[in-house]
Amino acid sequence: MLGYLGPTVHDPGYAPMKLINAYLGNGMSSRLFVELREKQGLAYEVSTFYPTRLEASPFGAYMGTAPDNAVHALKGLHQEVQRLAQAPLTQAELDTTRQKMLGQYLLGKQTNAQIAQGYGWYETLGLGLDFDQLFQQQLKTVTLEDIQATAQAYLRQPFVSLVGPEAVLAELAKVELG
């Protein structure tokens, strides 16, 4: 797992980071899934997470792999996250990710319980009920430049967390992620 400190919910980088999270790790069409699982066969599971928090929020990219693939998988995971800071998305990639995320956001509000949970969370964070609409508007206005600037600002040197056989961990400890 690679971990980074991401922006708070009040930071201008919040909506871009939500889109980065969706682009890199949300579902079977995400870049990490396509590149590391489908093309390279390195991952049993690969994804990202970025929860909404008042303070700095963790952004994590993680994957499960076979011990024999661990070094290549760690380097590949790091490379894919870093590539986002170096090479901008295309407008088509941003548009697709935005539509996917907005669609999933709306699907997550189909029942009264889901709506209440969202509103309750926004109230707990002191954002107010109107944050629901504000967030959707923020997603719609994120630019390619916003995505790259956010990636460059927050996806720098990761914290690394590794779990596996002792011999593999010793080998992974030698990997430099520069």
Q: How would you sum up this structure, described in words?
A:
With about 180 residues, the chain is an alpha+beta fold. It has one domain: Metalloenzyme, LuxS/M16 peptidase-like (Cytochrome Bc1 Complex, Chain A, domain 1). Helices cover about 55% and strands about 10% of the residues. The protein has eight helices and four strands. The protein has a four-stranded antiparallel sheet with strand order 2-3-1-4. Strand 2 and strand 3 form a beta hairpin. The protein is globular and about 50 Å long. The two termini are about 15 Å apart. The mean pLDDT is about 95.
Record the strand order, biggest sheet: 2-3-1-4
Question: Rg from C-alpha positions?
Answer: 17 Å
- Output the CATH homologous superfamily: Metalloenzyme, LuxS/M16 peptidase-like
Beta-strand percent range: 5-15%
Give the biggest beta sheet. Answer: 4 strands, antiparallel
How many helices? The count is 8
Helical content class = 40-55%
Number of structurally distinct domains = 1
- From the N-terminal CA to the C-terminal CA, the straight-line distance is 16 Å
- Class per helix and strand makeup: alpha+beta
Q: What is the CATH class designation?
A: Alpha Beta
**CATH architecture term:** 2-Layer Sandwich
Principal-axis shape: globular
N-to-C SSE series?
EHHEEHHHHHEH
Q: Could you name the CATH topology?
A: Cytochrome Bc1 Complex, Chain A, domain 1
- Tally of strands: 4
Q: Which runs of at least 5 residues are low in confidence (pLDDT < 50)? A: none
Overall pLDDT score: 95
